[in-house]
Specification:
globular, about 170 residues, four-stranded mixed beta sheet, alpha/beta, about 45% helix
């Protein structure tokens, strides 16, 4: 967020909370209703996604995978309102004590590619290592990767905006 803000890009952080998030049951009602039948943080965010120009989804690596809560959240939001994400740049960021970040990165990135979203990269995989925030602060390479990711996201958002202004629209 600091790198994006430094480039003049506004940010908003959303914590998905600690209330239950139902898994998508592929009932198809969202296609008829325009929203998910379950009303919770995922359904609210899916509708709000139309307001945003880009996304960064983050998760700790729990047991060699992103959190189940995040995956339920993303599956529901993307399935119910995928059009609100289409052609908007996105990045995944992960944190783990030791391992599991690259597999987690892959799982999250698949949500982006299935929705025609440009995937923002950095100078290495978008993750940091540490079991606590204090340990993450010691991962200087990981923190530099996050800084570069923010700069790359800002650059891509600005390029997309310039394209719009010049009449270049998404396919």
């Amino acid at each position: 967020a600091d790198s994006l803000n430094a480039e003049g890009i506004g940010t908003e952080m959303l914590f998905i909370g600690n209330q239950p998030i139902a898994d998508c049951i592929a009932c198809g009602q969202c296609g008829k209703l325009g929203h998910c039948v379950f009303q919770d943080a995922a359904a609210d965010f899916a509708l709000r996604a139309a307001e945003f120009d880009g996304f960064v989804f983050g998760s700790p690596g729990y047991y060699v995978h992103p959190s189940g809560r995040l995956l339920s959240f993303m599956c529901r939001a993307f399935y119910a309102n995928g059009g609100n994400f289409r052609f908007k740049p996105a990045a995944a960021v992960l944190s783990a004590r030791r391992a599991g970040n690259t597999a987690s990165l892959d799982v999250i990135n698949k949500h982006f590619t299935i929705n025609c979203m440009p995937v923002v990269s950095s100078t290495y995989w978008n993750h940091v290592h540490g079991n606590t925030p204090e340990e993450v602060e010691q991962d200087l390479e990981g923190l530099q990767t996050m800084t570069n990711l923010g700069k790359n996201m800002a650059w891509l958002l600005k390029c997309i905006q310039l394209g719009r202004e010049k009449g270049v629209n998404p396919p």
